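--- STAGE predict ---
source: upstream dedup step, 1 unique chain passed
mode: sequence only
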Amino acid sequence: MILYKNIFDKKGDNHHQFRNTWISKWTKFIYLEIIIMAFAPLILYWFKDLTETDAIYQPVSCVTLLIVCCKIVCCPEIFYGYTHLKNKINEEGDTPLKFNSIWILSNTNIPNSLQDQVLKAKIDSSLPDYIKEIESLILNDDFFIQSDVKIKNLSNKLKIPKSHLNYIFKYHSTVTFIELKKIIKIHHATVLIKNNYLQTNTLNYLSKEVGFASYDPFYRSFKKYTGNTPLDYYNLVRANK
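--- STAGE serialize ---
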């Protein structure tokens, strides 16, 4: 009952809820087996003599115990609940976030509106995965380089509900979606500069390459997010080679 209330009865998305239900059933089965093993000698004792009881009980109990132990070793989430174990693995994982200064991974926020409270219950368990998916898209795709990309496009690309993404940028990001797009474009610009892009191209062409309509907004954004002008940054990169 304690496990059910504190671990298996926690709300999550449909996939997590299914896994928790499955684990809950296995846990009940294991507890039932333990109870049977505990009372089996008494039950057998009433129907057979002690010698026959030992002969039947010992091999049966050993096989049952072996099955239970194997199941626990193969599925450690039985002790934690799927959602809790998944969160622990995410916390202790060795894959650092590239833009970790942007994300707020804490789930201690308390939304004001009822709608956001409902979203929080759905999103909290999947938050690390959502953020990793966004970062993977940032680093491995030119999706954010498009000048007209909107949060709806991101939702379609990642197959994540738009309401979930809006919630993440509202409560778990230090920047807005529009600001994030600028940061990503500047990040791509710094990567191109480090890869000698400006040896054969102009700064104006670089600004268009990373999705800015003209050089002026590119210049302002570059200086805002790097602390240097594009030309100064290029000279610093050359000096450090």
